């Protein structure tokens, strides 16, 4: 009895405490519910935002990799960098634009200096934009690209400065080791002298074949048109695989001496010749069934008597 009474008293105390707290919270109930609703809305907004960011980032990276399979990758990369400005995919797209223009400009230094200068300027602008990125690796990559751009434009002092900067920031990485080797190379007086000499050269485009003007270097302009290797239309194969009814086969010319179709007597002319058994017997040839008209044979005895009489 005492244990039951004690449990009942504890139960009542708990009920009283809950009632007091409910009464105390009643004036603030509206604010509490409003705060809970705001918190739920914030959580839902954050989930929606990060899901949208993930989807947009995935789409941007897909476009980034697809650009390298396009015929004009630089245009697609430039468009991606403009539309997704500030994203990591956009920074990498700009870095790729710089790399592509740097490679093309460096190769054109041996054939077309004006076009090479244009490509190198585009690469310089792209690398300078990437240099402002928060990613340390992208920043070092852009600085290394700028060093190579300045070396290609024969600005050895600026190129060496960027090489040394990358080597200092990336000491233990392969990128930093390569930059340190390039910085050491540009300190060589012979290397600087060669770049100064190469800057004064005016290379020309390769000459085409003798007697051929213009066109691609090394290729003639008077090549014949590509032959038509399609099937002739007279075969009636144009609708092959389209589900359309096939056209009737073409009518080929008959061999010489063959009568045209539809002429009278064709059936008789085309019949197989009859065999010798079906041929009628010749009137001048004696038949086995025809009675003999020749002289009958004489008896043997008569012949002997005639010989004795003689």
Structure, described:
By secondary structure, the protein is an all-alpha fold. Among the domains are: 2-51; 77-199, Serine Threonine Protein Phosphatase 5, Tetratricopeptide repeat. 59% of the residues lie in helices and 0% in strands. It contains eleven helices and no strands. It has helices at 2-25, 29-67, 73-83, 88-108, 113-131, 136-152, 156-169, 174-185, 189-199, 266-270, 300-309. Helix 2 packs antiparallel against helix 3 (73-83) and helix 7 (156-169) runs antiparallel to helix 8. The termini are far apart.
- List low-pLDDT spans: 262-270, 281-295, 302-310
Structure classification:
mainly alpha
Look up the CATH topology of one domain: Serine Threonine Protein Phosphatase 5, Tetratricopeptide repeat
Annotated CATH architecture of one domain: Alpha Horseshoe
Topology diagram in text:
Elements (H helix, E strand, L loop, with lengths): L1 H24 L3 H39 L5 H11 L4 H21 L4 H19 L4 H17 L3 H14 L4 H12 L3 H11 L66 H5 L29 H10 L1
Helix pairs in contact: 2-3, 2-4, 3-4, 4-5, 4-6, 5-6, 6-7, 7-8
Protein traits:
single chain; 310 residues; mainly alpha; Serine Threonine Protein Phosphatase 5, Tetratricopeptide repeat; 0% strand; flat; disordered C terminus
Quick gist of this model?
By secondary structure, the chain is mainly alpha-helical. Helices cover 59% and strands 0% of the residues. It has helices at 2-25, 29-67, 73-83, 88-108, 113-131, 136-152, 156-169, 174-185, 189-199, 266-270, 300-309.
